[in-house]
Structure formats: C-alpha cells, structure tokens
Amino acid sequence: MEPLDLTPEQIAKKVRNKKPTEMDTFPLLFSFIGRIGRRQFLIWYIPIMLVSFIIAIFDVEIGGYFYLLMLWPLFSLTTKRYHDLGSAGWFGLFQLLPGIGGLMIVLAGCGLIIGNFHDNRYGKSIYKKQSVV
Q: Which domain holds residue 43?
C-alpha cells in the first residue's frame, strides 16, 4: 500500500508515467491530469451514474447527495476523456445539465468517439503505435 501523503507533483508524475489501463484508482478518480480511453471511461462513468439514478428512484434526497459526492470523480473522468480527444476538460460541465447532462457526455463524444492517436498537450498517446511494414 502506498502512502496517501503524496504531493500534487508526485501524483501528476505517477499519472503521466503509467498508461491509463495501469492507472491506480485514486489518481484515476481524483486527478485531472492525463488521458483515458473510451473503455476505461465507460467502465467507471456508467456505473456511477446508474447507482446515482437507482438511489434517486428510491430516495431523491439521498440520490442527490450521492451524485454531489460523485461530482469530483465524474469531472475527473470526463476531463481525462476530453484530454484524450484533444479538447479542454471544461466540456465536462455539460454533465451538470439536469436530466440529459450525463447522457449528453456519453453520447456526444466521451463514450463514442475514439481518442487522438498522437501525443497532445495533455499527455502521450495511450494507444499502441503500430509500425507500417
């Protein structure tokens, strides 16, 4: 187990040095640095949204509190996904739109469009480089 008293620079270095498939859960959900692919985004984003929705069906107030608690991880995932697309993470604010925000994030790009194959200003490409023979 690693110590939790990491500085932001240490977390950023750790995130940059690993591929997103190898990224630890803490930096994945709480750091805004790096890139993640569609698969990793959907594996985390959809269950969080579904649990929020299911809780809200039974108790709207508790569902709302759970959603507020999960906003940071949701923004973190969305920001890293937009970084993979070569865009600014600010587009993640669309998920604050009531009712359609999460659906819009998944359908409008983060879950459907493949990321940028080249390195960009947000980090190195997470996709395997294939040599042309």
A: 35-110
